[in-house]
Amino acid sequence: MRTNAKARVILLFQLFWSFLRIAPVTFGGGYAMIPMIEREITAKRKWLSEAEMDDILSLAGSAPGGVGVNASAFIGYRLGGISGAIAAIAGITIPTFIIVCLLSSGYSQLADQPKVAAAMKGIHGAVIALILLAAYRMAKNAVFDKTTCAMAIIVLLVLLVADINPIYMIAIGLFIGIILLQVKQLLGLQVRTEKERLDYSREEAQYVEYYI
Amino acid sequence: MIWDLFVTFIKVGLLSFGGGYAIIPMIQHEAITGGWLSEAIFQEVVSIAGMAPGPVATNSATLIGYRVAGIEGAIASTLGMVLPSFVLIILISVFFYQVRNSQWIKASFYGLRPVITGLIAYAAIHFGFMGKDQSFISWQTPITLIIVFAALYSLVKYKLHPLTVIIASGILGIALF
To answer: To which protein family does this belong (chain B) (predicted)?
Structure first.
């Protein structure tokens, strides 16, 4: 019993430590974390098989929330139950929490320096590029017929023109897919809910977080 | 205030399909309509969230909480953002196989994915060119566009590390602005 409890504490600590080390070195958002998490969990620690990992990552990408946080919660829960999930989430959240607070207070103090302001404007451009790249990767999985193409454009235009809470867009999006598919089926049109995957290569698996 | 932050981010976290940049328009709506932050500070928050390591969604939540109500605000917002993930993931884990191949889920995602594409595209345009306090297009716009294209090109074509691109853009910014 005693050794059992000890093994459990060690597992929780290992979970915490594994995820603690991933977050501070991954730049460019959640999708940058995925290969790191895969390597740590399947190759290094051998906690899960690659097939289990693929399942987890596709679900983590589909659920609401950040992909990195979702993946860590899944893995933590699978290995150590609820306390495992807490340990993993704490590990992935705490370092970036500290870094982000430090960056913010540091920036507040330096914001008046012309050089810092100019550098920030340059970084602004880089972040626009990162967001565009995320939109493009999403579009690759999302936009594959006339309906989805029209929807993406309509959403963009509505947001640009009207002051609508984007939360409603998401809520509508959840139901409109079901309605549209029913209508298409009634009309006897060919129905496809996902982009066809002609050859499933490893390269595509990198973008696993864009299942949603 | 702290409670408001917590509740708002639970709401955002619950509906933040697509993670990261897809939630920026949502956070923007909450933060600016709620009168917590000015557009200028919101722009700064997104820049810092994007250049910092880690997930953009949680980073943004932390930063907004921090700017609005200090460390307590940051903790409340981050917890609010993470809590729905935690609960939903455990629920999904329990019902793993039922969820996976449900036709309903597939149909919802069919509609949801293009919506998220639109949201992220909007985030890029708004963050890039509409959020500033000055007019839509200024003398700085062409320079920003050059940096955007250079960054995009080096990310896609040369697969440069995002951190390299961020640092290079910072240096380019000092040189050009």
So the answer is: Belongs to the chromate ion transporter (CHR) (TC 2.A.51) family.
